Amino acid sequence: MKQTTKLIALLLAAAMALSFAGCLVPDKDKEADATVAPKTDGPAVDTSNYDRDAVAIELGSVKITAGEIEDSYNYYVSMLESYYGVQITDDESIKEYRDMAINDLIRYYLPQWKAETLGVKLSAEEEAAIEQDVNQQIEDLRTSLICEYAYYYGGAAEIADDIAKLSEEELDLAMEQINAELTEYFYEGYTLEQYLAEQQKSMMGDRSASALTDKLREEQIKELTVTDEQVDAWYASALASQQEEIEKDPLAYRDYAESFRDGDSAVPALVVPEGVLRVQLIEIAPEAERDLKIETNRAEMAELEAEYGRLALNGEKTERQEEILARYLELKTENDVLEEAFIGDARMRINRAYEALEEETPFEDVMKQYNVDGFTGETLLYTEGDERYGELCDYAAELLVGTYSEPILIDDVYYIVMLIEKPQAGVVDRATIADAIRAAAAANAQDEAWTALYAEWEKEAATAAIRHEDAYAAIGYLN
Question: 0.85 cut: is pTM over it?
Answer without folding.
Answer: no
